[in-house]
Amino acid sequence: GIGIVGAALFFGDAVITPAISVLSAVEGMNVVTPTFQPYVVPLTLAILAIVFAVQRFGTGGVGLVFGPVTALWFLAIGLSGLNHIMDDPEILLAISPHYIVSFLVNSPDVAFVTVGAVFLAVTGAEALYADLGHFGRKPIVLAWLAIVFPCLLLNYVGQGAFVLANGGVVGHPFFEMNQGWTLIPMVVLATAATVIACQAVISGAFSLTRQAVQLNMLPRFVIQHTSEKQSGQIYLPRINLMLALVVMLLVVGFGESSRLASAYGISVTGNMLVTNILLFVVMTRIWKWPLGVAIALMAVFVFIDTGFFAANIVKVFEGGWASLA
After folding, report:
1. How distant, in Å, are the alpha carbons of 208, 235, 239, 289, 309 from that of 221?
2. With a threshold of 0.70, does the pTM exceed it?
3. What is the CATH number of domain 2-324?
4. 271 vs 291, higher pLDDT
């Protein structure tokens, strides 16, 4: 039952991720010129239509460029943040965890709201282990420690310094701190990175549906293999169509990525919480860990994820209902 809840939340994630990712990337054009605002939603819909239309051909060929583009993306955002850290070097003090502990203790009510607001900074963490079986632990850990985490940290710290240096009056700090000739390439690169992120969750939805069909939890769907070498590369026409329709409805209905943030937070935090519960079951029943050790380890993660989930679930009426629906 818990696994089914997690699967349902993942499907919510699978429709919200493409919508919020591509929409937020295209919104970067508003920084280039405010006159682009009326074209944000139509262009987002066009990009999404192309993404879903090419699913039938598989990702075998274009998949070769995913790695280099993603690496370039992280290096670019890392350099972008590094370039602005000197705007307010004191921002580096925020890396110390004692500030967040002090904030939680001294202002619990404000901290509760803030945790829900900043959660988007850690979304994607649930995808770190999604390809564990395909790549193995070592490459994922190496990529995270060598490229992903340092570049993300540099970018977030750089954004913070940029916002502080501008008196807190910044609309889109990520794009606004890339002025001059770097702005348009960053928008293009962001759009390419979001398309890759979309592909990851769409492929995940296909795989999850196939597993549900094999377990007789869903009716049979037409499953087409798009690769002669990789059995995991599949295409489900009906699921693809349903995903495309729901994603596009979300884009049209919400109109802005900021409005979709509430829905995104609930599905991701719910997924993280369910994963912790299932991991505890695996630890005790399959790995035969001592109960005390399993509880001690899980208590830390469950405490953190419960806090995130609670801070996001209160946004149900602000758009969070979309991920639950």
Report:
1. 12, 10, 8, 39, 33
2. yes
3. 1.20.1740.10
4. 291
